[in-house]
Every structure is written in structure tokens, then in C-alpha cells.
């Protein structure tokens, strides 16, 4: 073990020295040719790999001021700018790239992917439509096209694209998992027999890519059987799906606990005194995934003075930039907590606003709806003291079950086991309690049950908290035509309903262990 550790340390030291040499060579080259875009991009990447996140931005911004007439280089530049949180400049580069005359289909598809990453879904859909018209015809690109159609509310068009995909590529699980979620499966239109036939034909080995496809097909079985009210068979399919996903994405409970403990133990600075610069302000929506955050986003963005920015990670990006900590999952957040007393929170707030205000589309407010920002409430409060924070609170059984029965892909590892989902919920609940105690009045709790049962009173209270008055459109979010890029995009285009209340009771027998643990957790917290 000692020899192994020494070898690892030697390798790290060797990599560090090599990167320092590469950086010195690049800087020397740029002294001679300061506008060489390829070298500027490489210098940024090298500084980033050395852990110098802030220092990785200037070379990219310089390169953007000397835009090459080379589409490949512009794409590489935009990718790096997005990773650095330089969103405004990345958009400007993409807009310039979009002016290229007669771009090839593959370039259009690449642009659409980057526009999607930025969260500009209308733009991405227009570009991907042009790419398909120009001849793009691969499974991945058509899948992206279908998702963009779905996000924009064009379910029939999305279905046609997905069915075309499956006719040509019958083992294309990505298309199938989106297709079954477009609408409720009914006896007259379900394809359960086809799905089970394909499942038997899929490779049964342990290769990760094969396991993931099998999980997607098992998920499609579950969704279909659940819609058809064949609950025993549905649960068995969900169990098989989640067993595959657990093996692919092990949940690190200890890492989650370390992050929660660090955030809850973070020293509280003096009350923030700075005011945000004039201009549109964000409204943050936080909570557990699948707690109703998308519905609240749709309600708020139906207001004449509010736009939806969707699920964006901009605050997380800018927090890492200002703290000068390269993103590294939980390890990165732990390092930020260690540096939290030295962070310039005014700079953080202004940088976030500078990179996101374009999302307001000329309105006074824009909704930043990212449930995971529940971890960052303390940072948001310090950086943007005038920004309202709304916390969706859903019944623990319903929210845990809703996560367990969702297929998030190779993220959200907690969601693929009942033990892990209840553990993750425990960390979330601990943080929510901590913010209420440490920062009283910072978050407005919005019970999901109240939102769907006492809608007008609840929405009025939410809008009042944000400094807005009730408009009738907020009570009818089903008329909101803006894109919805979340797993619940189909449901939130319906009128507000109560079907999500007590949904777990359909599987009360299977979920009894979860209910007992949550009850013990609630009693312990009380």
C-alpha cells in the first residue's frame, strides 16, 4: 500500500510538472503570435487542468475577439467558453457561426447541441430542424430532434420521429424511453409485445452499454404496464430496470453525507449589505427533483413580467469560477465550502447576473429552476440578497417514489434504490431544515399539495413573496407555450391537477419498507 501511494504521488507530481512545462511553452508561443486561436484554447485547457479555473477564461475571451474563419475551431471555442461559464460570449460566437452560408448538416447539428446546452431550446429546435432537412440522419441526432419537439409541445411530431428511429434501429433504447413518456400508454396503442420481444434479443452480457439499453427497455415495460394498471408486472420490470442502473451508477452515501455536513457547518458571514445591480432578477426554485418545481416554474412564467430560464446550472458554474475551483462533483463543492469565507459574494452575484440576464427576454424576472440548488441556498443568499428563493415541499413518500420510478440516465445515482433514495431525501431534508434555521425568511416553502388543491391562494402568496400581483394566466399554465426541458414536460402542459397526490399508494405493499423508514426519519426529526 505504501509503495502504491508513493507511486501515485510520483505520477501526480510528474503530471503537474508536465502541465507546467506545456503552459510555459504555450505562453512563449503566444508571445510571438498572440492571436493564435488554437494555442489560446490549448492554454485555457492547460490552466484548467492545473486547477486554475479563473485563469482559464482570459485566453478564451481573447480568442473570441479574434474569431477564426474555421467552424471546427469556433465549435471548440464555444465548448470551452460554456465550460468556463462565459455564456454571453459563447452565445455571441454561436450567433456568428449561425451566419455561415450553406453550412453542412453536421455543423448545424453540432450548433443545435450547443444551443441546447445553453438552454436556448427554441433556437436549438430551429437549427436541428434545418439540420434534419439538410440530411442529418443518425440515431443520436434524430433523438435530439424528437426531444426538442417534445419540449416545444409538438408531441405528435416527436412521436413520428421516434417511431421512425425504432423502425430503423430497434435496439435504440434512448428513443423508446422518450416515446413511452410522451403520453399515457393505452391498450389500443401500446407496444408491450414488441418491447418484450426486443428485450429477449438484446445482449445479456455485463457490458455497460448493453446493460444500459436493457434498463431502458425494462423501463419502457414498467411505464407501459403501469399505465395499463398491471401493477405486479410493472413493479417487477421497474425492479429489474433499477437493479441494472444501480450496478452502472453506484450511490456514494458517504460522499453525500460529507457534503451535507460541510454545507450545514459552513460559517455564516454578516448579513449581506450589497444590492444587486439594476436589471432583471432571478427567482430561484429549489427542492427535491420530482417535487413539483416544473409546475411552479410554468405558473410563474405565465406571468407577464416573468420568463423561464429553465433548469440551468449557471449559479453552480459561477460559484466555481469565483471560488477558483474546477468542477469536480462533490469534491469541488467541498473545496468551495473550505474557501467560502474568502469568496467575494458581490462578484459572484454580479457575474451570475451578467451571464444570465439575457434569459429574461426583456421581462423584470426570470425563473432559475434547478432543484439541486437546494445545496447552494447559503451561497445564493449571500450573492443575490434580493433574489426570492422558493422551496417546493412534496410529501416524502410521493417524492421518493416519483424519483424511484423515473429513469434519469447515468445521473442521479440515488434514485435507483429505495435505500439510496431515502438516504438522499434525508440529506435534502437536513439541509432544508438548516437553511430555515440559519437563514430565516430566506426560502418560502411552497407545499405541492397546496399548489394543486388551493391553487389561487398559494400562487397569490408566492407572487406576493416575489413582489408581483396575481394574473389569471398564472392559474392556467397549460396555456404557457414556452419550451419545457424536463421529464415532466408532458404532464405540465395539462391543466393543474391532483393526480400526483398519494401516487405512491398504488404500490403501497412494495413501498412499505420505504414508508417505515421515512416515518422513523420524520419522528426523529420532530
Please tell me about this protein's structure.
The chain is mainly alpha-helical. Strands 2-3-1-4-5 form a 5-stranded parallel β-sheet. The mean pLDDT is 93. α2 (37-49) packs antiparallel against α3 (57-64), α2 packs parallel to α4 (71-83) and α4 runs antiparallel to α5. The chain contains 24 helices and 5 strands. The protein has helices at 2-32, 37-49, 57-64, 71-83, 87-97, 105-118, 121-133, 139-151, 155-168, 173-181, 192-201, 208-227, 231-248, 253-264, 293-300, 314-323, 329-338, 345-356, 377-383, 396-404, 418-438, 448-453, 455-465, 512-525, and strands at 281-286, 306-310, 365-369, 389-393, 443-447. Among the domains are: 1-101, Tetratricopeptide repeat domain (Serine Threonine Protein Phosphatase 5, Tetratricopeptide repeat, Alpha Horseshoe), CATH 1.25.40; 279-525, 3-Layer(aba) Sandwich (Rossmann fold). Helices cover 58% and strands 5% of the residues.
Which key phrases capture this entry?
58% helix; globular; five-stranded parallel beta sheet; Rossmann fold; 526 residues; Serine Threonine Protein Phosphatase 5, Tetratricopeptide repeat; 5% strand; mainly alpha; 24 helices
Topology (elements, then pairings):
Layout: H1 2-32, H2 37-49, H3 57-64, H4 71-83, H5 87-97, H6 105-118, H7 121-133, H8 139-151, H9 155-168, H10 173-181, H11 192-201, H12 208-227, H13 231-248, H14 253-264, E1 281-286, H15 293-300, E2 306-310, H16 314-323, H17 329-338, H18 345-356, E3 365-369, H19 377-383, E4 389-393, H20 396-404, H21 418-438, E5 443-447, H22 448-453, H23 455-465, H24 512-525
Parallel strand pairs: 1-3, 1-4, 2-3, 4-5
Helix pairs in contact: 1-2, 2-3, 2-4, 4-5, 4-6, 5-6, 6-7, 7-8, 8-9, 9-10, 10-12, 11-12, 12-13, 14-17, 14-21, 16-18, 18-19, 20-21, 21-24
Amino acid at each position: 500500500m505504501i509503495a502504491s501511494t508513493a507511486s501515485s504521488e510520483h505520477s501526480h507530481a510528474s503530471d503537474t510538472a508536465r502541465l507546467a512545462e506545456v503552459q510555459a511553452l504555450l505562453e512563449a508561443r503566444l508571445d510571438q503570435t498572440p492571436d493564435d486561436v488554437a494555442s489560446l484554447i490549448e492554454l485555457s485547457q492547460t490552466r484548467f487542468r492545473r486547477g486554475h479555473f479563473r485563469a482559464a477564461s482570459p485566453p478564451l475571451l481573447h480568442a473570441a475577439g479574434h474569431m477564426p474563419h474555421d467552424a471546427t475551431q469556433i465549435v471548440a471555442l464555444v465548448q470551452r467558453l460554456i465550460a468556463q461559464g462565459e455564456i454571453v460570449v459563447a452565445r455571441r460566437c454561436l450567433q456568428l457561426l449561425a451566419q455561415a452560408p450553406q453550412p453542412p448538416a453536421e455543423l448545424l447539428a453540432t450548433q443545435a447541441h450547443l444551443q441546447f446546452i445553453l438552454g436556448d431550446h427554441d433556437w436549438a429546435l430551429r437549427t436541428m430542424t434545418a439540420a434534419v432537412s439538410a440530411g442529418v440522419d443518425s440515431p443520436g441526432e434524430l433523438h435530439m430532434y424528437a426531444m426538442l419537439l417534445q419540449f416545444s409541445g409538438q408531441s405528435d411530431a416527436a412521436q413520428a420521429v421516434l417511431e421512425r428511429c425504432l423502425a430503423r434501429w430497434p435496439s435504440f433504447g434512448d428513443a423508446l424511453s422518450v416515446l413511452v413518456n410522451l403520453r399515457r400508454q393505452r391498450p389500443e396503442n401500446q407496444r408491450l409485445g414488441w418491447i418484450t420481444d426486443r428485450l429477449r434479443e438484446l445482449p445479456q452480457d455485463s457490458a455497460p452499454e448493453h446493460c444500459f439499453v436493457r434498463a431502458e427497455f425494462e423501463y419502457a415495460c414498467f411505464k407501459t404496464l403501469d399505465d395499463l394498471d398491471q401493477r405486479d408486472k410493472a413493479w417487477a420490470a421497474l425492479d429489474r430496470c433499477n437493479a441494472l442502473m444501480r450496478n452502472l451508477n453506484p450511490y456514494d452515501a458517504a460522499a453525500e453525507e460529507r457534503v451535507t455536513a460541510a454545507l450545514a457547518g459552513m460559517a455564516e458571514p454578516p448579513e449581506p449589505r450589497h444590492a444587486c445591480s439594476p436589471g432583471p432578477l432571478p427567482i430561484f426554485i429549489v427542492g427535491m427533483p420530482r417535487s413539483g418545481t416544473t409546475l411552479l416554474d410554468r405558473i410563474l412564467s405565465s406571468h407577464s413580467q416573468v420568463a423561464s430560464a429553465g433548469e440551468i446550472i449557471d449559479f453552480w458554474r459561477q460559484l466555481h469560477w469565483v471560488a477558483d475551483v474546477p468542477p469536480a462533483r462533490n469534491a469541488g463543492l467541498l473545496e468551495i465550502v473550505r474557501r467560502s469565507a474568502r469568496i467575494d459574494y458581490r462578484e459572484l452575484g454580479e457575474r451570475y447576473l451578467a451571464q444570465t440576464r439575457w434569459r429574461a427576454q426583456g421581462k423584470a424576472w426570470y425563473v432559475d429552476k434547478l432543484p439541486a440548488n437546494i445545496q447552494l441556498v447559503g451561497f445564493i443568499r449571500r450573492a443575490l440578497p434580493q433574489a426570492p428563493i422558493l422551496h417546493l415541499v412534496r410529501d416524502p413518500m410521493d417524492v421518493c417514489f416519483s424519483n424511484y420510478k423515473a429513469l434519469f440516465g447515468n445521473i442521479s445515482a440515488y434514485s435507483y434504490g429505495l435505500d439510496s433514495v431515502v438516504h438522499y431525501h434525508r440529506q435534502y431534508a437536513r439541509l432544508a431544515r438548516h437553511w430555515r434555521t440559519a437563514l430565516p425568511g430566506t426560502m418560502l416553502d411552497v407545499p405541492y399539495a397546496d399548489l394543486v388543491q388551493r391553487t389561487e391562494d398559494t400562487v397569490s402568496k408566492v407572487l406576493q413573496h416575489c413582489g408581483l400581483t396575481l394574473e389569471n394566466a398564472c392559474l392556467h399554465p397549460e396555456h404557457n407555450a414556452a419550451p419545457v426541458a424536463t421529464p415532466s414536460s408532458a404532464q405540465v402542459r395539462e391543466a393543474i391537477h391532483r393526480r400526483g397526490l398519494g401516487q405512491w399508494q398504488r404500490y403501497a405493499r412494495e413501498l412499505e419498507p420505504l414508508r417505515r423508514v421515512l416515518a422513523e426519519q420524520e419522528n426523529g426529526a420532530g
